Amino acid sequence: MGEMMTIATPVQPIIDGLAFRAFHARLLALVAAVILLDGFDIQLAAFAAPAILADWRIGSGALAPVMAASLAGMAFGTSIGGWLGDRFGRRPALIGAVLWFGAMAMLTALCTNVTSFAILRFITGLGLGAAVPNATALVAEWMPLRARNYAVTVISVGVPCGGIVGAAIASWLIPAYGWPAAFVVGGALPLLLSLAMLRGLPESPVLLARRGGADAQIAAMIAAAGGMAEGPFAPPPAIAAGGHPFDPALRRTTIGMGLAFFAALMSVYALLSWVPVLLSGAGFAMGSAIRGAMILNLSGVTASFALTWVMLRIGSRRTIIATVAAGIAALGLWSTLLHWPEVAPGIVLAGLALTGATVLSLQVLLLTLSSHAFPVECRSAGIGYSISFGRIGAIISAFGAGVLLDQPSGTWLFFAMIAAALVLLAAGALIVDRHFPGRPRV
Length: 442
Prior knowledge:
By secondary structure, the protein is mostly helical. It has two domains: 9-236, Growth Hormone, Chain: A, CATH 1.20.1250; 240-436, MFS general substrate transporter like domains (Growth Hormone, Chain: A). 79% of the residues lie in helices and 1% in strands. It contains 17 helices and two strands. The chain has a two-stranded parallel ribbon. Helix 2 packs antiparallel against helix 9, helix 4 packs antiparallel against helix 16 and helix 6 crosses helix 16. The N and C termini lie far apart (50 Å). Its main location: membrane. Residues 27-437 form the Major facilitator superfamily (MFS) profile domain. GO terms for molecular function: carboxylic acid transmembrane transporter activity. This is Major facilitator superfamily (MFS) profile domain-containing protein.
């Protein structure tokens, strides 16, 4: 009589059903710290720019290639890092990205001219870009079902939060110790974090199940997370037969997500880059204009959590389309307030807050959707390709918005560009055919 066939246990329902415990909190804290430092390092060049201009005695236009080089490096890094995460594992790809951008940031402190600065910002951008898709995939594949979308939202708002924290640190560090000190700190913190990651960051159980031969490791991790299961374990059924985001079953989703991220990052970077200039042009003092940028970020972070709650109840497609409509309305209101004579500054800033709450939160909603839309066999790569396409939009906005603002009706053209990008974002979201529905009413 032959041996009885052993039936493999699907690993995803086990993870879905776990309670959120200290294990998940530690994992989320580690990954959130990665993205926080990622956001800090992304904006380091902007924080250091005034001091560098004075130190090297150059004009602000000379640093334009530096800003573009960083975004280009992130675009390549996001695609490469996503592929590496699917091929070799989320854990090594994420730790490697942190080590990379930490070490390169420290080397940037030694730069003495624009050329070396631009080259090192491009190389640093490779690591900065590689971190996001692997962080998102790892969190999505470890969090219990009820906490998953909120956990991805925590990761998604890490970049603007890193910018806020980084601005606070750099504002006293650079005047006291010079701009190289900001890069030393911005590099040393990720290197220290990587030591904690080596000790406490687990690999994705779903990815291990897909590879096979890791049943004992998966069982031990599930036990550490508060569950109990024995192997053999089975991964979710493969959707992309060839294991990449452009397989026929995923092609429509990949194209739609790429367009949506392109438009989202074009809108977000246009606002992040030019809000202080717009407020200054409307008569705000420099300090108030910079605080306006803080309001923009904070409103986007706050609204992201509220809109994630809405998305879980009415579904991703309806939430994204409704937020786009609200974003276009907020842009129209804020652009009118900026040009309206004798409007109280508080009202102008309230319009800015509405704009940030809608436009900036769209990027977070898309990242949450991408963690659902792409299956385990190509999740990191799918998220990576989508964000890489988005980086192209960011690069275009960095240059295009500046050109538009130099025109006679530049402010109106600037807002029209962002509104057109939001329409494109809605079109991309409608192309995606792997949205998640809202929770059924009981």
